[in-house]
Design brief:
CATH class of chain A: Mainly Beta
Radius of gyration of chain B: 25 Å
Helix content of chain B: 25-40%
Oligomer: heterodimer
Order of helices and strands of chain A: HEEEEEEEHEEEE
Structural class of chain B: alpha/beta
CATH topology of chain A: Lipocalin
CATH architecture of chain A: Beta Barrel
Largest interface: A-B, 39 and 42 residues
CATH superfamily of the largest domain in chain B: 2-enoyl-CoA Hydratase, Chain A, domain 1
Structural class of chain A: mainly beta
CATH architecture of the largest domain in chain B: Alpha-Beta Complex
Order of helices and strands of chain B: HHHHHEEHHEEEHEHEEEHEEEEHH
Number of helices of chain B: 12
Radius of gyration of chain A: 21 Å
Strand order of the largest sheet of chain B: 3-4-5-6-9-10-13
Largest sheet of chain A: 10 strands, antiparallel, barrel
CATH topology of the largest domain in chain B: 2-enoyl-CoA Hydratase, Chain A, domain 1
Shape of chain A: globular
Strand content of chain A: over 45%
CATH class of the largest domain in chain B: Alpha Beta
Number of strands of chain A: 11
Number of helices of chain A: 2
CATH superfamily of chain A: OPCA outer membrane adhesin/invasin
Chain lengths: ~280, ~350
């Protein structure tokens, strides 16, 4: 099992590494910083059989850049988000608080590009770390969330002009295919895992048979003079079934962000012609 | 043609396998309605699938959890009051005879305290105060003094209060010239297992096997992981090298029971007093649809001989406080320990 997990982590790490290498050159980059909030529904059977509902706040940083590959068809996207949840049991008696940090790096290929349409597909490496704390549980008060995935990502973009204002719509979907995740066994305590060091069986290989997750984001960019504002609606659906425990987290977020377009010049390279994606 | 058939068959097998794998991740989580019947069913199933002593207690006193269902289900009616439901559910949980099992509602806590309420207390704070005096020292969760016959006395009222290495250094250094040590854990209802281990680690010069722990791996009554050994690791700081008496009563429960389990393994230690209250399961929590919280033993622990200590640990020297001594303001158990340490 350990060998499989290590192999998966090496593959995901390679994606991060090779993608990062390709940025050391002259390139166009679009940066977006967004803030928002939304609704959360949470079920973690290690903590409770009840579904908790509440809200969350989210902060997101996205960087989309063209690589220096000669074809001009290769892009990278780095994505980092932090979110904090506050959820209550149905009867208002139980309370959980949680926090999650997600990082994803995608290496996109653009097979289709027309005047208005662009389509991107590519592999994505995902990292997730966070936790959920149930304020009234005894020896199972919290659940650590750790996972790394190799995912498939696709993104479509449609650009148009309305009332002489440039706008665009973008739809992105990410689906994890293979990875590794931490989860205690059915009735295993964190005392046993971390204090006594009996951690065997806590790292699971994940694939769609036990990790059905989907992240979709629909964003709308509108340009006001030199300023671009992005409205994004994101739906995150996580469904882990690990160690006979189930974890489901559904979030809907609405975010508003500011987009800045940068053109990086690396060393003495001549600035290349702007290639809008 | 034959090859095509093989390929088609392979494709079908692949497709079927893919669908099964996909569907396997869509396992439904059982949900219950927020009605008296729904809450009863939820509680019964939580215990049935997660409680760790169902098999052991079936052997010990004939607990039959399916029969418990049949016994209490007729007492549930969907028009019953919350108080009535709470009483029935509390009675059902009492069948487990476990002090770690509780049902928490806003108006009450259902509990099983027969492990101590049906027995002599063997402890009086008023009489103990005569031994501690008024000038005893407090090192976080430890209260300590030196008795007139040069025997150190440490009272540990709870393992919920942190016991730090610095506290132990100071405490043991202050008692270093004593000829023996009494560690009194009577009426200590438990707390944090790691604090109990931190204290016990000062009384051994080598790593010692003190027991085993395992956890449930599935909803079946016998679904357990392989027992993992637990070692008491010798502290690398100041360690006690003289004789020790550990005083116990029926209220020495949970993490305190674990402390006694570790200490009685040590060659220089004598356990004196009454049988401990037990409580060897690590409690987890869950919830009912109505929002009430339930606590139950989830992970069993065993002693070094792989025996349960859920119903307590017998002392090496059984002593009960006598009415005569109580009338004189004397703690029979402390006196017995002093006598043993003076030999």
């Amino acid at each position: 099992m350990k060998r499989h997990v290590i192999s998966i982590l090496i593959i995901i790490g390679t994606i991060f590494f090779t993608s990062a290498q390709s940025l050391d050159a002259t390139r166009f980059e679009e940066r977006t910083f967004s803030l928002g909030g939304g609704l959360t529904a949470l079920l973690d059977t290690y903590l409770s059989p009840l579904t908790y509902k509440g809200g969350h706040v989210v902060m997101q940083d996205e960087r989309f850049a063209q690589t220096t590959a000669p074809s001009g068809r290769w892009f990278t996207q780095s994505f980092f988000s932090l979110h904090g949840d506050y959820t209550l049991a149905a009867e208002g008696q139980g309370l959980t608080v949680g926090g999650m940090a997600d990082y994803a790096y995608t290496y996109y290929y653009r097979p289709i590009r027309t005047e208005r349409w662009s389509l991107y597909v590519g592999p994505q490496g995902q990292l997730r770390i966070g936790g959920i704390y149930n304020l009234r549980n005894s020896n199972n008060p919290a659940q650590l969330k750790l996972g790394a995935n190799l995912a498939a990502s696709t993104m479509g973009k449609y650009s148009f002009t309305l009332w002489n204002v440039p706008m665009s719509l973008r739809l992105q979907a990410d689906v994890p295919l293979l990875g590794a995740a931490f989860a205690p066994d059915y009735g295993q305590s964190y005392y046993e895992i971390f204090y006594l060091g009996h951690e065997e069986g806590c790292v699971h290989v994940t694939s769609p048979h036990n990790n059905l997750s989907l992240r979709t984001g629909l964003s709308y960019d509108v340009q006001f003079r030199s300023c671009t504002v992005r409205l994004t609606w994101v739906e995150d659906l996580y469904h882990w079934h690990l160690g006979r425990q189930q974890y489901r987290m559904f979030t809907h977020s609405l975010m508003i962000g500011y987009v800045s377009n940068l053109y990086h010049v690396w060393r003495d390279d001549e600035a290349k012609q702007y290639i809008p994606y | 043609m034959v090859n095509c058939k093989i390929v088609n068959k392979r494709n079908r097998v692949f497709l079927l396998t893919s669908i099964l794998l996909f569907l396997s991740s869509c396992t439904k989580v059982e949900t219950y309605e927020d009605t008296p019947t729904g809450n009863f069913e939820a509680l019964w199933h939580i215990i049935d699938e997660n409680y760790c002593f169902l098999d052991y207690k079936a052997e010990e006193y004939g607990l039959d959890w399916a029969a418990v269902y049949r016994k209490y289900k007729p007492r549930i009616a969907d028009g019953m009051s919350d108080a009535g439901l709470f009483e029935v559910l509390g009675d059902m949980l009492d069948e487990l005879r476990d002090g770690h099992v509780n049902l928490y509602a806003a108006h009450d806590v259902a509990r099983y305290w027969d492990f101590r309420e049906g027995y002599a207390t063997n402890f009086s704070e008023e009489i103990q105060a005569r031994y501690l005096g008024t000038d005893y020292k407090i090192a976080s969760g430890l209260r300590y003094t030196i008795l007139p016959d040069n025997i150190g006395y440490i009272y540990v009222p709870s393992f919920s209060n942190s016991i730090g290495e610095g506290n132990l250094d100071e405490c043991l250094a202050a008692l270093a010239l004593c000829r023996g040590l009494i560690i009194d854990v009577r009426n200590n209802g438990g707390g944090n297992l790691s604090y109990a281990e931190t204290l016990a680690a000062r009384f051994t010069n080598e790593h010692m096997l003190t027991g085993y722990v395992c956890h449930k791996t599935g909803p079946g009554h016998s679904d357990f992981s392989d027992p993992e050994p637990i070692y008491l690791k010798s502290s690398d700081r100041l360690r006690w090298q003289k004789r020790v008496c550990v005083l116990t009563n029926r209220s020495s429960y949970s993490a305190t029971n674990d402390f006694v389990k570790m200490m009685r393994q040590l060659p220089m230690t004598t356990v004196v007093g009454d049988r401990t209250g037990g409580g060897s399961g690590l409690p987890f929590s869950s919830e009912l649809p109505c929002g009430w919280s339930v606590r139950f033993s989830a992970c069993p622990s065993f002693d070094a001989g792989m025996q349960h200590t859920e119903f307590g640990i017998e002392p090496d020297v059984k002593v009960e406080t006598t009415d005569e001594d109580r009338a004189r303001g004397v703690d029979t158990i402390i006196e017995k320990a002093r006598e043993l340490l003076a030999k």
